[in-house]
Amino acid sequence: MREKSMRAPRIILIATAAMISLGLPPTMAEDSSSSPQPASTDRPVQADQPRCARWTDECVNCTRDSADGVPVCSNIGMACQPKKIRCLADAPAQEQPQLK
Description:
By secondary structure, the protein is of the alpha+beta class. It contains one helix and four strands. It has one helix at residues 2-23, and strands at 52-56, 61-64, 71-73, 86-90. Strands 3-2-1-4 form a four-stranded antiparallel β-sheet, with no helix packed on it.
């Protein structure tokens, strides 16, 4: 008999705790990305660099195919921190057809 009398308060306590915890709004960390970010003026490394045949940002390396001029770039490394894009090789000068 004593066992039944001890169960009732325990069940009431658990039910009350559940109702209180479900009724409270969840605690969330402040979203730091909600503040407006200034627009970046840096071009992505995969964007065409017209005066370079090869360029890099120390994470991604790009090379221009000489046949059609389309840049081909490697994948970025896992923990790489890109630096300023720099040209490794100048693009060959476009030859002008000479009129005779």
